[in-house]
Request: fold
Amino acid sequence: MPGISREEVAHLAKLARLELKDEELDHFAGQLDDIIGAVAAVSEVADDAAVPPTSHPLPLTNVMRQDEVRPSLTPQQALSGAPAQEQQRFKVPQILGEE
Reply:
């Protein structure tokens, strides 16, 4: 496959309404050629029927632990240092102005 020429990059830049300098044309020509080569390599995969569709390349497992009841503070202990409390909850100033 022939490489992308400076003229083709200039044409693409014009279509995209981009103003590129001469050194940028050479630079982007090489980059676009690499991208097209990578896409061509992926499209050469012949037998993809044996590859199952996936949402992630690696198998995922749930890493969360099981919930266990453990001893903890009572509501009175938890609220003992609170400056204000109401119905066994921390009472804080209203910030949104809604009832």
Notes: Residues 22-43 form the longest helix (22 residues). The helical segments are 6-15, 22-43, 75-78.
